[in-house]
Specification:
The chain has about 250 residues and is of the alpha/beta class. The protein has helices at about 15-30, 50-55, 80-85, 95-100, 105-120, 130-135, 140-155, 180-195, 220-225, 240-250; strands at about 5-10, 35-40, 60-65, 90-95, 125-130, 165, 205-210, 230-235. Helix 1 packs parallel to helix 2 and helix 7 (about 140-155) runs parallel beside helix 8. It is globular and about 45 Å long. Bound molecules: 2-phosphoglycolic acid.
Length: about 250
Protein backbone atom coordinates (compact mmCIF):
# COMPACT_ATOMS: atom_id res chain seq x y z
CA UNK A 1 0.00 0.00 0.00
CA UNK A 2 1.25 3.50 -0.88
CA UNK A 3 2.34 5.44 2.20
CA UNK A 4 1.06 8.95 2.82
CA UNK A 5 3.73 11.61 2.34
CA UNK A 6 4.68 13.61 5.40
CA UNK A 7 4.93 17.39 5.33
CA UNK A 8 6.01 19.11 8.53
CA UNK A 9 6.11 22.90 8.73
CA UNK A 10 8.64 24.40 11.10
CA UNK A 11 7.21 27.88 11.57
CA UNK A 12 10.15 28.80 13.85
CA UNK A 13 9.65 32.05 15.83
CA UNK A 14 7.12 33.51 13.41
CA UNK A 15 3.44 34.31 13.51
CA UNK A 16 1.08 36.30 15.69
CA UNK A 17 -2.54 35.87 16.76
CA UNK A 18 -3.78 37.76 13.72
CA UNK A 19 -1.36 36.17 11.23
CA UNK A 20 -2.21 32.69 12.51
CA UNK A 21 -5.93 33.34 12.43
CA UNK A 22 -5.73 34.00 8.68
CA UNK A 23 -3.05 31.44 7.89
CA UNK A 24 -4.65 28.56 9.83
CA UNK A 25 -8.10 29.36 8.49
CA UNK A 26 -6.78 29.27 4.92
CA UNK A 27 -5.05 25.96 5.64
CA UNK A 28 -8.25 24.57 7.11
CA UNK A 29 -10.21 25.62 4.03
CA UNK A 30 -7.73 24.56 1.35
CA UNK A 31 -5.68 21.67 2.76
CA UNK A 32 -8.35 19.28 3.97
CA UNK A 33 -8.69 17.71 0.54
CA UNK A 34 -5.11 16.49 0.40
CA UNK A 35 -5.82 12.80 0.88
CA UNK A 36 -2.35 11.36 0.48
CA UNK A 37 -0.54 13.74 2.86
CA UNK A 38 0.05 13.82 6.60
CA UNK A 39 0.53 17.53 7.29
CA UNK A 40 1.79 18.87 10.63
CA UNK A 41 2.35 22.48 11.66
CA UNK A 42 4.94 23.08 14.39
CA UNK A 43 4.20 26.45 15.97
CA UNK A 44 5.62 28.49 18.84
CA UNK A 45 4.17 27.22 22.15
CA UNK A 46 1.72 30.08 22.86
CA UNK A 47 -0.15 29.45 19.61
CA UNK A 48 -0.91 25.77 20.19
CA UNK A 49 -4.28 26.68 21.68
CA UNK A 50 -5.10 28.63 18.51
CA UNK A 51 -4.11 25.74 16.25
CA UNK A 52 -6.25 23.41 18.37
CA UNK A 53 -9.20 25.77 18.15
CA UNK A 54 -9.01 26.23 14.38
CA UNK A 55 -7.76 22.85 13.17
CA UNK A 56 -9.66 20.40 15.39
CA UNK A 57 -11.86 18.22 13.19
CA UNK A 58 -9.57 18.58 10.14
CA UNK A 59 -6.86 16.22 8.89
CA UNK A 60 -4.17 18.82 9.65
CA UNK A 61 -2.26 18.22 12.87
CA UNK A 62 -0.10 20.57 14.91
CA UNK A 63 2.64 20.56 17.52
CA UNK A 64 5.73 22.34 18.80
CA UNK A 65 9.40 22.91 18.04
CA UNK A 66 10.85 21.74 21.35
CA UNK A 67 9.95 20.14 24.70
CA UNK A 68 11.49 19.81 28.16
CA UNK A 69 13.39 16.67 29.01
CA UNK A 70 11.86 16.76 32.51
CA UNK A 71 8.44 15.56 33.56
CA UNK A 72 7.61 18.67 35.66
CA UNK A 73 9.02 20.73 38.56
CA UNK A 74 11.52 23.56 39.04
CA UNK A 75 12.56 24.12 35.41
CA UNK A 76 11.86 27.78 34.73
CA UNK A 77 10.88 28.52 31.17
CA UNK A 78 10.42 24.90 30.13
CA UNK A 79 7.29 23.27 28.69
CA UNK A 80 6.61 19.58 29.38
CA UNK A 81 5.42 16.85 27.02
CA UNK A 82 2.27 16.46 29.16
CA UNK A 83 1.45 20.14 28.55
CA UNK A 84 1.93 19.79 24.80
CA UNK A 85 -0.31 16.75 24.80
CA UNK A 86 -3.05 18.72 26.60
CA UNK A 87 -3.16 21.09 23.64
CA UNK A 88 -3.68 18.23 21.21
CA UNK A 89 -0.13 18.30 19.82
CA UNK A 90 0.91 15.45 17.58
CA UNK A 91 4.32 16.41 16.22
CA UNK A 92 7.25 17.70 18.30
CA UNK A 93 10.46 18.77 16.60
CA UNK A 94 13.47 17.76 18.68
CA UNK A 95 17.19 18.38 18.20
CA UNK A 96 16.85 21.14 15.62
CA UNK A 97 20.31 22.56 14.92
CA UNK A 98 19.15 26.13 15.62
CA UNK A 99 18.52 24.95 19.19
CA UNK A 100 21.39 22.55 19.68
CA UNK A 101 23.95 25.16 18.56
CA UNK A 102 22.44 28.22 20.27
CA UNK A 103 21.58 26.45 23.54
CA UNK A 104 24.34 23.84 23.59
CA UNK A 105 21.93 20.94 23.61
CA UNK A 106 23.73 17.59 23.92
CA UNK A 107 22.77 14.38 22.11
CA UNK A 108 21.87 12.91 25.54
CA UNK A 109 19.43 15.77 26.26
CA UNK A 110 17.86 15.23 22.87
CA UNK A 111 17.54 11.49 23.61
CA UNK A 112 15.69 12.23 26.87
CA UNK A 113 13.34 14.66 25.11
CA UNK A 114 12.69 12.07 22.39
CA UNK A 115 11.68 9.56 25.06
CA UNK A 116 9.31 12.04 26.77
CA UNK A 117 7.55 12.78 23.48
CA UNK A 118 7.00 9.06 22.91
CA UNK A 119 5.84 8.55 26.48
CA UNK A 120 3.01 11.03 25.87
CA UNK A 121 2.05 9.33 22.60
CA UNK A 122 3.15 12.17 20.34
CA UNK A 123 5.44 11.85 17.31
CA UNK A 124 9.02 13.13 17.63
CA UNK A 125 10.51 14.74 14.53
CA UNK A 126 14.18 14.15 15.30
CA UNK A 127 16.54 16.46 13.36
CA UNK A 128 19.99 15.16 12.51
CA UNK A 129 22.61 16.48 10.12
CA UNK A 130 26.16 17.61 9.58
CA UNK A 131 27.88 20.98 9.13
CA UNK A 132 29.48 21.94 5.82
CA UNK A 133 32.95 21.35 7.27
CA UNK A 134 31.92 17.85 8.32
CA UNK A 135 30.50 17.13 4.86
CA UNK A 136 33.62 18.42 3.15
CA UNK A 137 35.69 16.23 5.45
CA UNK A 138 33.55 13.28 4.37
CA UNK A 139 32.46 12.45 7.92
CA UNK A 140 28.74 13.21 7.57
CA UNK A 141 27.68 9.62 8.12
CA UNK A 142 29.77 9.36 11.26
CA UNK A 143 28.24 12.60 12.62
CA UNK A 144 24.67 11.48 11.94
CA UNK A 145 25.37 8.03 13.41
CA UNK A 146 26.56 9.51 16.67
CA UNK A 147 23.45 11.73 16.92
CA UNK A 148 21.22 8.67 16.52
CA UNK A 149 23.39 6.42 18.68
CA UNK A 150 22.66 8.49 21.79
CA UNK A 151 18.99 7.54 21.49
CA UNK A 152 19.60 3.90 20.55
CA UNK A 153 22.06 3.37 23.42
CA UNK A 154 19.74 4.88 26.02
CA UNK A 155 16.39 3.60 24.81
CA UNK A 156 16.95 0.89 22.16
CA UNK A 157 16.08 0.92 18.45
CA UNK A 158 12.45 0.06 19.22
CA UNK A 159 11.84 3.61 20.46
CA UNK A 160 11.97 4.73 16.81
CA UNK A 161 8.68 2.95 16.10
CA UNK A 162 6.15 5.49 14.73
CA UNK A 163 8.61 8.37 14.79
CA UNK A 164 10.05 10.68 12.15
CA UNK A 165 13.74 11.31 11.55
CA UNK A 166 14.48 14.48 9.58
CA UNK A 167 17.79 14.63 7.79
CA UNK A 168 18.59 18.34 7.93
CA UNK A 169 22.14 19.16 6.86
CA UNK A 170 23.03 22.32 8.78
CA UNK A 171 24.51 23.94 5.66
CA UNK A 172 21.18 23.61 3.87
CA UNK A 173 19.04 25.25 6.55
CA UNK A 174 18.08 28.85 5.78
CA UNK A 175 20.69 28.96 3.03
CA UNK A 176 19.02 28.54 -0.37
CA UNK A 177 21.41 25.64 -0.88
CA UNK A 178 19.25 22.54 -0.52
CA UNK A 179 20.91 19.15 -0.62
CA UNK A 180 20.57 17.50 -4.01
CA UNK A 181 17.96 14.72 -4.17
CA UNK A 182 20.89 12.26 -4.51
CA UNK A 183 22.60 13.57 -1.34
CA UNK A 184 19.31 13.54 0.59
CA UNK A 185 18.36 10.11 -0.68
CA UNK A 186 21.74 8.59 0.13
CA UNK A 187 21.72 9.86 3.71
CA UNK A 188 18.10 8.87 4.29
CA UNK A 189 18.83 5.31 3.17
CA UNK A 190 21.92 5.30 5.41
CA UNK A 191 19.80 6.38 8.42
CA UNK A 192 17.14 3.77 7.68
CA UNK A 193 19.77 1.01 7.54
CA UNK A 194 21.45 2.30 10.67
CA UNK A 195 18.30 2.15 12.78
CA UNK A 196 17.20 -1.14 11.30
CA UNK A 197 20.65 -2.74 11.42
CA UNK A 198 19.83 -5.07 14.29
CA UNK A 199 16.23 -5.64 13.25
CA UNK A 200 14.17 -6.48 10.28
CA UNK A 201 13.13 -3.09 8.78
CA UNK A 202 9.48 -4.09 8.80
CA UNK A 203 9.70 -4.43 12.53
CA UNK A 204 10.61 -0.81 13.19
CA UNK A 205 8.15 1.32 11.32
CA UNK A 206 9.35 4.92 11.10
CA UNK A 207 9.65 7.66 8.51
CA UNK A 208 12.58 9.62 7.12
CA UNK A 209 12.11 13.11 5.76
CA UNK A 210 14.44 15.78 4.41
CA UNK A 211 14.68 19.41 5.52
CA UNK A 212 16.79 22.41 4.45
CA UNK A 213 15.76 25.06 1.88
CA UNK A 214 12.82 23.04 0.56
CA UNK A 215 10.72 25.17 -1.80
CA UNK A 216 8.18 24.75 -4.56
CA UNK A 217 10.95 24.45 -7.16
CA UNK A 218 12.98 21.63 -5.63
CA UNK A 219 10.02 19.80 -4.04
CA UNK A 220 9.17 17.73 -7.14
CA UNK A 221 12.55 16.05 -7.29
CA UNK A 222 12.74 15.57 -3.54
CA UNK A 223 9.33 13.92 -3.41
CA UNK A 224 10.32 11.64 -6.25
CA UNK A 225 13.30 10.29 -4.25
CA UNK A 226 12.78 6.67 -3.22
CA UNK A 227 14.34 6.95 0.21
CA UNK A 228 12.33 9.98 1.40
CA UNK A 229 8.95 9.81 3.10
CA UNK A 230 8.43 13.57 3.08
CA UNK A 231 9.90 16.97 3.91
CA UNK A 232 10.39 19.43 6.77
CA UNK A 233 9.82 22.98 5.61
CA UNK A 234 11.04 26.15 7.32
CA UNK A 235 10.75 29.52 5.54
CA UNK A 236 8.55 28.31 2.73
CA UNK A 237 5.90 27.11 5.19
CA UNK A 238 4.91 30.57 6.38
CA UNK A 239 4.23 31.75 2.85
CA UNK A 240 0.77 30.28 2.28
CA UNK A 241 1.00 30.17 -1.53
CA UNK A 242 4.43 28.56 -1.52
CA UNK A 243 3.41 26.04 1.14
CA UNK A 244 0.22 25.22 -0.70
CA UNK A 245 2.16 24.73 -3.94
CA UNK A 246 4.54 22.26 -2.27
CA UNK A 247 1.60 20.29 -0.83
CA UNK A 248 -0.11 20.17 -4.25
CA UNK A 249 3.10 18.85 -5.80
CA UNK A 250 3.33 16.14 -3.14
CA UNK A 251 -0.32 15.19 -3.52
CA UNK A 252 0.14 14.80 -7.26
CA UNK A 253 3.12 12.40 -7.08
P1 LIG B 1 14.45 26.26 5.83
O1 LIG B 1 14.46 25.66 7.32
O2 LIG B 1 13.43 25.48 5.07
O3 LIG B 1 14.09 27.69 6.02
O4 LIG B 1 15.84 26.08 5.29
C1 LIG B 1 14.31 24.30 7.54
C2 LIG B 1 14.36 24.02 9.01
O5 LIG B 1 15.08 24.72 9.74
O6 LIG B 1 13.69 23.09 9.50
Amino acid sequence: MKKNKIIIANMKMNGSLSFNEQYLSKIKKNFNNFNSLNIGLCLPYPYLFQAKKILTGTKIRWGSQNVAKFENGPHTGEVSAAMLEEFGSKYVIVGHSERSTAYCESDENIADKFEKIKKYKMTPVLCVGETLIEREAGIMERVVSSQIKAIVENYGEEIFENTIVAYEPIWAIGSNMAASPEQANKMCIFIKNLICSRHNCNFINFNIIYGGSVNSKNAVQLFASEGLDGVLIGRASINFDEFSHICSVAEGI
